[in-house]
Write a structure and sequence with these properties.
Elements (H helix, E strand, L loop, with lengths): L9 E7 L4 E6 L5 E3 L15
Parallel strand pairs: 1-3
Antiparallel strand pairs: 1-2
């Protein structure tokens, strides 16, 4: 097997605009700022800023 070809899978912080903060694992490599998450009511997904 080849060494060092897989991306690092590490814990990051995903922050939603509603204020919800989640610790997730990802290969992104940096923290994420999300527009919506599972705690945002579906009716708000249709509104525009």
């Amino acid at each position: 097997m080849k060494k060092d070809i897989h991306p690092k899978y590490e814990e990051i912080t995903a922050s939603c605009s509603c204020g919800n903060v989640m610790k997730i694992r990802s290969t992104v490599g940096h923290d994420l700022n999300l527009d919506v998450c599972s705690k945002v009511p579906p009716v708000l997904h249709w509104q525009t800023a």
